[in-house]
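Z., the sequence and structure:
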Amino acid sequence: MSRPAGRGSRRPTRWWRRRSLRTRLTVIAATAIAVSVFLALQVAIELLDSELQDTAEDQLRADSRVLATNAERAGLAQVQLPPYPGSGRLVRVILPDGSTRTPAGQPALPPVSEHAGRVAQGASADLMEPNDSDEDGYLIYTLRAGDGAVQVGARAADDSPIDRFGFGMLLIGLLCVVGGALVGRTVARTGLAPIDRLTAAAVRVAHTRDLDADIPDEGGGEIRRLIRSINDMLAALRDSRRAQRLLAEDAAHELKTPLTSLRLNVELLIRLDRRGTLDSALPAESRTRLLNDLGVQVAELSALAAELTDLARGDVNDESTELLDLADVVVAAATRARSRVPDIEIALDLTSVWVSGRPAALQRAMLNLIDNAGKWSPADRSVQVRLRAEGSSALLEVDDAGPGIDAADVPRVFDRFYRADSARALPGSGLGLSIVQRVVDAHGGRVTVARSARGGALLVVDLPAAAPPAPIARLTAGEDTAAR
């Protein structure tokens, strides 16, 4: 069964990709030098051959002019033709009747060609022609002289000098290729040394889990930018690990109190039950109160676990973004807050403002704001929630009539697990406003806290507004809705 043609063609590519960068650079350098030497050799040989050819032709022309001058003075039939010395140029005189004269002892030249005969007849002044009729090819120059012509010829240029030159250049080229490969490998090793150190540092960090060891900033250009990027990544990992550690420590601290209280109450019930004195030691009223405390503690643990999950997962960005009316989100959050705490009173003054956001995350943030305000507002005072557009922003204000936030607590009000001294007796984990800030930051907004005109806390959320898909009707203050 034959293999697919594409599989064989992919083998060189896979082989190349498996090579190290140092090997690739060495091969590329050696190949570039080899190609350059080959091209230079070809050009040099062509230039040398052309130069030798031009020199030979110029020499034949010069000799022909001397012989023609002598022939015109003495006549073609009487001009002296010295005996052939055994080497060098070959001469021949073409008489008007087509016969020829040659020096004594000279090797025979190829027969007079038709084109050379035309020169002798006066059809043209001269002719340079190669004759490759045999292995001893000749280069013959014919020049018109008197009523005939003279010819000077020489054997075609010997290729042995060119061959020797080419062979020498080839040896030099091979030496250059080998030297280029060595130089390329040295340059690659030197140039990639920072990468090697960077790799070793990254492996060390992976093995030791030590994120505090920054990689030395060395090299320049791309190497320096790469090192700085990795150091920034290590710094981000350090911050993430520190945040996880703080989250775990804070969670353990916050879980300790309700778990301790729950464990003590459960142990008390178990011990009394084992003794058979549960009914006598705990009257019905005390038992009901204890069971209610257990229910409250379990509810607190459940709420704390849910908020810890929301905070630890950090899944704000996992939800898809869509264009939505923030007023609808606030109404949904107020409805949920009323179902969770029936006694809370919420007064809404909302204007439809469209934003680009994640509905579930925004609703969770709005719910936390309303829940927080509901914990502080007196039973006979409402939580006022106002939403309006201001410039390119959507402003949401949650106003309660509670005691407000002390100035000393304002800088830490959005910290995880932070609870003011005045809030220790109230239910909650200290995570609600931290989740609000995380959601608002993820949407490109900001949340601030101030004192309300009613004396309580005023939390303001500023989110970027988006263009509405259609004209939106405004809910005026007279059309405020109250949820009780």
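The longest helix spans residues 21-74. The mean pLDDT is 76.

Let me know what you think.
H.
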